[in-house]
Backbone:
């Protein structure tokens, strides 16, 4: 099975810094952001994990759980938490999942099947493709995914913005334009005819071109 937008996120069971997790069961009726890391005690990932801890209340406000995944043992994760707090001021307050057998990294197609069956002896460069963010909906479908190189820290404020858009467009027949932020005008979806749009938006909309219809965001 290929991992794409619209695919069901593969289920798994694994240990984490907050105990054993059955992934789909743990997500429950929430949204979820799963973000992965190539190795413990790596500098860029250290900054990312601490920043996500600070953002956790914002994700919770959006009914979204967050979980990290790193290709190492949970025991190593636990030792890393103190370093993350020392560097960023905040220790991860969400599960950091262990993947010492590379099983989940392969399941999510971040590593090839030929990568072996152990994280022991592997360098961050060996695991450099394990740098993906997956946004998963309550129905367990992957709604967004993107990968970064090890040398570039990910923008998790952008993940919040993306989540706002995904949740809004899941509830209403709209799309969000470039650089959209919560509260700004949206675009009426192309699947909505003008006749239907008049019923939904009786106050009208702004249309610089027939196929571009801007409207105030639905409540």
Residues:
């Amino acid at each position: 099975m290929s991992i794409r937008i619209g695919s069901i996120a593969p289920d798994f069971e694994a240990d984490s810094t907050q105990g054993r997790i059955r992934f789909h069961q743990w997500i429950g009726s929430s949204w979820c952001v799963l973000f992965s890391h190539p190795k413990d005690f790596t500098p860029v990932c250290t900054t990312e994990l601490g920043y996500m801890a600070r953002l956790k209340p914002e994700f919770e406000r959006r009914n979204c759980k967050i979980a990290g995944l790193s290709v190492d043992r949970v025991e190593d994760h636990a030792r890393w938490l103190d370093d993350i707090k020392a560097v960023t001021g905040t220790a991860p307050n969400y599960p950091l999942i262990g993947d010492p057998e590379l099983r989940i990294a392969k399941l999510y197609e971040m590593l090839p099947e030929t990568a072996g069956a152990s994280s022991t002896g592997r360098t961050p460069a060996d695991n450099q493709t394990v740098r993906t963010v997956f946004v998963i909906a309550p129905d367990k479908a992957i709604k967004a995914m993107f990968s970064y190189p090890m040398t570039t820290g990910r923008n998790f404020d952008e993940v919040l913005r993306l989540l706002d858009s995904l949740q809004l467009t899941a509830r209403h027949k709209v799309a969000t334009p470039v650089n959209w932020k919560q509260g700004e005008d949206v675009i009426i979806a192309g699947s909505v005819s003008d006749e239907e749009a008049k019923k939904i938006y009786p106050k009208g909309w702004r249309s610089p071109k027939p196929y571009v219809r801007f409207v105030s965001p639905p409540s």
Remarks:
- The chain has two domains: 13-154, 172-215.
- The first strand starts at residue 13 and ends at 14.
- The CA atoms of residues 63 and 216 lie 24 Å apart.
